[in-house]
């Protein structure tokens, strides 16, 4: 009993293992014309982890006499569930004889055991030929070029000529530009100190040096009136450095208040006496005269005077013409280069399309 039961279990296990592997063969079309191709798909369903070996068929090898293999392509692996999967391989076949072919079962080896598919049938049909009118048959035609249409190529051709001419023009203008050396014109920036600030700076230096306290009144009044005269020249535009004190007062009388001019006249007269008559002023007179100058400057100063001036160089007519010609050359080179590049890009794109690349 035990031996019989063991034999039964082995038989059931063997049948179960056999049932887990199945091989299927299927034709895409069971009917083809002579020379036509069709696909033969061979698939095996097995337990995941098993090893399947498909028939080793090479291109131009006969599957059966009269049926030739053209190509072999590995198919996909599909997981059916957690344990089973399907692997396929596709064979492209053809035939050149009109008959009904019997395709023998195809064998797939799985883990060392062969499994066969069902047999298949392939019907190859002849191509109908009208033998009553042989004059309608023509030999194979040779390879022919596409017809040449000048209308399609004329615009790219003339644009190509334009690109060549523009390139030559750009080169010529570039040579001209190199020969025509640039005129270097530098704009100078000059910073001006306002007249009142310049005069106040000089007065501050006089005070810092203590000339009035040192006793040298001639130097003191010379520098004080010098700062004042310089201010008058730059502020009012009069030649105060070459005028006498009276002439300065007469010029200022036209634009300034009389009370301020009285103090200024007194300062100038005191300075003249110190410098030419050896007059010795008192210390309080020195301070008063300096205060008069400071007050006059603060009253008549202008705050809107620009402190920065741009000085452009004076170019000759030849230099101006040279600069204009360089600007024209640069503009022409830029425009010609852009037109040439755009035309070349369009020509390349058009020829690419005409050639079908």
Query: Which regions contain 5 or more consecutive residues with pLDDT less than 50?
Result: 11-18
Tell how many strands the DSSP assignment holds: 13
Average predicted local confidence, pLDDT: 79
Tell me the fraction of residues in β-strands, as a range. 15-25%
Largest sheet data: 5 strands, antiparallel
The geometry reads as: elongated
- The radius of gyration over CA amounts to 57 Å
Helical content band: 40-55%
Question: Structural class given helices, strands, pairing?
Answer: alpha+beta
- Helix and strand pattern: HEEEEEEEEEEEHEHHHHHHEH
Counted by DSSP, the helix tally is 9
Strand order of the largest sheet: 1-3-7-6-5
Query: What distance lies between the first and last C-alpha atoms, to the nearest angstrom?
Result: 82 Å
